[in-house]
Amino acid sequence: MALHPATSIAFLLVAGLVLPSSVCSLSNGKPNFQDIVSKMRADLPQPPNLKQESPSSKFDASPPTCVANEARSLNLFSTTPLIHSAPLSRLCHPHPVYLKLDLLQPSGSFKDRGMAHLCTTVQKMHNSASNSGDTTDRMKVISSSGGNAGLAVTTVARNIPQMDVSVIVPETTKPLVVEKLRSLGAEVTIHGKNWNEADALARQWVDDAKKSGGGAVYVSPYDNPLLWTGHSTVIDEIITQLLEQSFDQTTQQTNNMKIGAVLASVGGGGLLCGILEGIERNYHGPSEIRSKLVRGTKVIACETEGAASFAASFNSDDGSIVRLDGINSIATSLGATSVTPAVIQRSKRHRDRGEISNSGDDVDSYVCTDSEAVLGCVQFSSDHRMLVEPACGASLAPLYSDRLRTKLLDQLKDNEDSVIVVEVCGGSGVNMDLLRGWKESFLKD
């Protein structure tokens, strides 16, 4: 039996062969991609006080053409808080530190952003490509995940009608995460010593379903432009929130705030691709105030020793993608043995723009020890009463570790008025018992 046309288009879409640049919708009942893109792009909601108190052109903080608006309108991911951290600002004086709390996404991590955009796009394509126009046909997404991507796609898909989920996780996945996946309704299979082996089985299942005429779509945890575009919304939000917090109601203007550095953890590179995409979109966007805020931003890619696949590729002499022999780190959620080539390309483009314009835009790789990642988790929980796993602790380590903080502040010494933003990406593989165990194992002194 031939593969259903809706499934065929959806499969090509997530495989990277059909890639509209925004959320897809119908155009006169047919999947006309140009109409789809133009119709589904809209502005992010702006903080109401900004619009009411600054109606003039003095404060034009409107984001550039917005993305993932369909997923946002369905509440499949959240606009998370951006908070000022007094403890970290003291450590990093004179740079104020802000925390983007994506650990408060419904699934517990930033991955809801990309998965929401991807799943709504796939569902739109599935429905619009159906010859009968029947939107009740069930479709299945199959994902491989060390935990957080599986939790995100399951959390998102359970809120999309007629979408089922299978998640294949490696043997290193914490039982806590496996239990959460099953409780959310995912069909869970444990397979392989690392993520790459689990991913190979996920791809095989999709291929088998395709050959047999069944309907299944592969969903990568990190390697898909739709995911990156969804993740890029975090930069749109950060810029809007920083401008809101810096707005002076007396002068009806913002101060001269600039982002000096954005810190983010890197596994396979999906989040970093999104951050770089969001910076570039705002850098070249119509709003000068937003462009100025991100001009000169240093993006700090954070990993742990034993899982530093980005550092290996980014620092390679010939720029080739380096595949690690395996993952040897407590930060199992960073456990991709190689990154997507796109993250290296985008990182070098960001760096090149800084060199050409002499604006300071740069990308740097920071590799911390497992102990430094755990220190980030422990200190963050003490300072802010929230829990994150070591994969997220890697992005906090450059602030809490004396060794890495000295390096970061030295890089920012020529831009003392700039702020530091940490993407607190979250992660659901943590509880008080696990955090206590990590502290006992890695922070004995």
Keywords:
445 residues; alpha/beta; six-stranded mixed β-sheet; 19 helices; 46% helix; disordered N terminus
Write the layout of secondary structure elements.
Elements lengths: L4 H11 L17 H8 L7 H6 L15 H5 L8 E3 L1 H6 L5 E5 L9 H18 L10 E6 L3 H10 L5 E7 L5 H9 L3 E4 L4 H18 L4 E3 L5 H7 L1 H14 E2 L4 E2 L4 E7 L4 H14 L4 H7 L3 E7 L4 H6 L26 H17 L4 E7 L1 H15 L5 H11 L1 H10 L7 E6 L7 H11 L3
Parallel strand pairs: 2-12, 3-4, 3-6, 4-5, 9-10, 9-12, 10-11
Antiparallel strand pairs: 1-2, 7-8
Helix pairs in contact: 1-6, 6-7, 6-10, 10-12, 11-12, 12-15, 16-17, 16-19, 17-18
What do you see in this structure?
The chain is an alpha/beta fold and 445 residues long. The protein contains 19 helices and twelve strands. The strands form three sheets. A six-stranded mixed sheet has the order 1-2-12-9-10-11, sandwiched between helices. Strands 5-4-3-6 form a four-stranded parallel sheet, with helices on both faces. A two-stranded antiparallel ribbon has the order 7-8. α8 (175-183) links the parallel β4 (163-169) and β5. α1 runs antiparallel to α6 (111-128), α16 crosses α19 and α17 crosses α18 (402-411). The radius of gyration is 21 Å and the shape is globular. The termini are far apart.
* Category from helices, strands and their pairing: alpha/beta
Main β sheet profile: 6 strands, mixed
The rough form would be described as globular
By oligomeric state, this entry counts as: single chain
Strand content: 5-15%
> Could you give the order of strands across the largest sheet?
1-2-12-9-10-11
Number of strands: 12
Helix content: 40-55%
Tally of helical runs? 19
Radius of gyration: 21 Å
Mean pLDDT: 85
Spans of 5+ residues with little confidence (pLDDT < 50)?
1-58
Tell me the distance between the termini: 64 Å
